[in-house]
Amino acid sequence: MDLQLRNRTAFISGSTAGIGYAVARILVGEGATVILNGRTQEKLGLAVQQLQDEFPKETILGLPADFSKVSEVERLLKKLPDIDILVNNVGIYRAASFFEATDDDWQQQFEINVMSGVRLSRTILPRMMTNNWGRILFISSECATLVPEDLIPYSMTKTALLAVSRGLAQLTKGTGVTVNSVLPGSTLSEGAEQFLENTARKEGKTKDEIASAFFSEVRTSSLLQRFAGLDEVANTIAYLASPLSSATNGAAIKVDGGSMGGIL
What we know:
The chain is an alpha/beta fold. It is built from nine helices and seven strands, in the order E-H-E-H-E-H-E-H-E-H-H-E-H-H-H-E. Strand 1, helix 1 (18-29) and strand 2 form a beta-alpha-beta unit. The chain is globular and about 55 Å long.
């Protein structure tokens, strides 16, 4: 399917690996100019080069920024060209009980997971409105409603993204700009792979056994009963970033394998 993305420019925060990189790869393959982002120039350079090697005729750029540092975000915003597609993907988490999570844990996760998208959107959305076209996507999580007991601060930030996304969408009424959020479920990212490997080594089991136990004992609500692949999530995000999704605005799209339940 042609997503009609040639001559569009996309910026994806936190895109040197995981879902962000998978989205970047699809958008580049569809002919979009893509600006990757990571905290360090070294890792960012490797990601840009990897994509450039795969798509030598396409334009792939990189802008480093640590979203926990406002000064770096301000520098990034000054360097950004006009952006047609903004994917607010950067995020961190720390697993800890509610009683162990410190004020710094709460504040850091809010600063990176929520304020990154707020600051980027505050700069980029007015330009999109002037151009009468644009796509803003907030990458939330199934944890926005499942709220695991050891991820309460993280879940709070992912729920907050739904409110920010819906609120911004309401500002776009009658324009060609849309703002939506995407809620992935358990996805086989680098972090998930590392979790499976570490747990398998610790318990003397295979990765497949650990993955199976996760869905039979922890994420029991999942209908998929397996980790989603990165491309399975990225494909939905890429579609929502395209002109083909013009009738979808102010929505929270689940890519959760059914784990969140309900019919809406």
